[in-house]
Amino acid sequence: MEKSEWDELNNLEQDVLSDRREPHQFGDKTKWPIDEQVETILSQAEVEIQKLNKARLVARDSLSRKMDF
């Protein structure tokens, strides 16, 4: 590989590394600009995930009670 190709690849890698951002809440627009419609969909998805997690816990508790009998 020629020196210039190596430099170009190295520069691309540095660009990618410098563009990494820390995880954040979806509403933090300072790190990732998010379209309002997408933000709404993501918020609704988070609510649905919370509902599913609660339902899973209730089902597990119910199953556990049945197994005790």
The quaternary structure here is single chain
Count of β-strands: 0
> H/E element string?
HH
Rg over CA atoms: 23 Å
Shape assignment = elongated
Derived structural class: mainly alpha
Q: Overall pLDDT, averaged?
A: 75
What is the terminal-to-terminal distance? Answer: 71 Å
Strand count, sense and barrel status of the largest sheet are:
none
Please count the helical segments.
2
How much of the polypeptide forms β-strand, as a percent range?
A: under 5%
Unreliable sequence segments? none
Percentage of residues in helical conformation: over 70%
Task: Describe what you observe in this structure.
The chain has 69 residues and is mainly alpha-helical. It has a domain at 35-69. Helix content is 71%, strand content 0%. It has 2 helices and no strands. The longest helix is centred in the C-terminal third of the chain and has 33 residues, at 36-68. It is elongated.
How is the secondary structure organized here?
Elements: H1 3-18, H2 36-68
Keywords:
69 residues, mainly alpha, elongated
Question: In short, what is this structure?
Answer:
With 69 residues, the protein is mainly α. Helices cover 71% and strands 0% of the residues.
